Amino acid sequence: MRSWILGILSTAALVLSGCFASPGMVLNESSNEDGSIDTLADFQGAKVHLQSISPLTLSKLSGVSSDSATPATFAALPEELLTYTPEAYKLGPFDIVQVVIWEHPELTSPLGSYRSDNATGQLVSESGVMFYPYVGEINVVGKTIAELRAEIVSNLSKVLNNPQIDVRLLQSQRHKVYVQGSIKNPGVVTLNDVPVTFLEAINRCGGATADADLSTVEFTRDGKTYVLNMLAPYAAGKGPSDVVLKDNDVIRVPDSEESKVYMMGEVRNQQALSFKNGKLSLAQALAEAGGLRLESAKAENIYVFRASAADAIDVYHLNARNPMALVFGDQFALKPGDIVYVDATNLSRWNRVVQLVYPTAQLIYYGSQTVNTTHNAYKAIQNW
pTM above the 0.70 mark? Predict the structure, then answer.
């Protein structure tokens, strides 16, 4: 029986080609390739670019010169975000304005001084009209604070001698910014005559949560969405904290769970990994997945698949047969959506074929034995 089954397994071995190599890593192993693989291919209509993870590739991806540790470039914000300057605030319906007239508290707080700031202000009606003593109704829609002050001074000068007046916007109801996502207190931030920056709006909502991914913050303005990295260094120090907000801007801070890297193939734990502060290297990802399966992983065939466009795939290859190559892996920064795949050795593939074929061979053998036994018994009965 044993020799018969081995014969079947030997036949299955003819399907496999190539030499068997022991799995795992070897410190003194020399690579049979010089780290300069750079080829193009097609896969189902997509352009595939295969290249080695080498010092040259790392310098191209990171923007750091291969002979220098100084960043060659900084992150840069779109010019239109940095050049925006808000116009002077124009009043509208439901705004609350406070008018202070020095030496005339009866006009500043005609209903008493023990009230909140909002209560001491004048509400602009839905029709855009505000009432003030000795002035009457004032149409304030579209006026700036300076223009409203000038109009009140002009009217009060008829009843007061050289009135000293200060006008303040206490509360705005018209201009709003929306802060969403992994924020401690997501909600609405109102804009007034004092400019509010990107960072200030987030801080007013309590700041980001511990699980927030600050490297891919989405900022939507006028129907266009920008992705801002709040952790990156910016040229001339001009970063997201310098972006002044305007009406209807939307800030969304994603959760780190939204950005994943997928570990597949011959790793201990096939799983999806999250980024930490927007960072995750290839070596870190392999370690978090439990490392390679030393009994089956082909360390010289570690791949990172990255969709660079709808019809283009970048494939990065790391030959880690010598574990020193993992230094390159630690410098290779993964991106959300990357797929890390560790290939299997020919020997492990053979073992899997054996595991699949052996039960079938046993079934065939015992089936043939049963047929032979039945046939012999039938002949014995006939002879008897």
Answer: no
